[in-house]
Design goal:
single chain, about 160 residues, seven-stranded parallel beta sheet, 7 strands
């Protein structure tokens, strides 16, 4: 990384790379760095050691310590993932995940701490707190078996 620190406001950017990045009210295609702070930013890809997104939107977020506050993301992956009043279709954490009043499609982590959150499917070794899930592991397994059986039946019938 060439640059040590960047502070950007109200710009449309392609690629940013620096150790410390702070961006406000902008759009970015890709961001890479050590400590990344984004406020009201739309980004395609975010990759950093410590990522903090406030009122932002992103397709892919990846970092060792990932924190979303009032944000939307398609994929959020990190060692520690924190969602606060946020929405993500897939959230994965290698270690701990904290979900506070958020909505997640599929959530996976070793330990999940939740406070009034909703998920479609949650997978974790330890799950603490108040969470509403649509599917547990048994119902997801049953849906997968039924779907696989139907596709298998159609593939047999199509060959005849």
């Amino acid at each position: 990384m060439e640059k040590i620190s960047m502070d950007i406001e109200c710009k449309d950017l392609d690629f940013i790379e620096a150790q410390f990045i702070k961006v406000r009210q902008s759009t970015i295609k890709a961001v890479e760095g050590g400590h990344i702070e984004l406020q009201q930013v739309g980004a395609l890809s975010i990759d950093g050691e410590r990522v903090e997104v406030t009122q932002g939107a992103s397709v892919m977020m990846r970092g060792a310590n990932l924190s979303l506050n009032q944000s939307i993301g398609l994929i959020a992956a990190g060692n520690e993932t924190n969602l606060n009043f946020s929405c993500a279709s897939v959230a994965v954490a290698a270690g701990d995940a904290t979900v506070n009043r958020s909505a997640v499609g599929i959530m996976a982590a070793k330990e999940i701490n939740s406070d009034n959150s909703s998920t479609i499917l949650m997978i974790g070794k330890n799950i603490n707190g108040n969470v509403t899930t649509l599917l547990d592991w048994r119902s997801a397994l049953a849906i997968g078996a039924v779907t696989g059986g139907i596709f298998g039946l159609f593939s047999l019938l199509r060959k005849r």
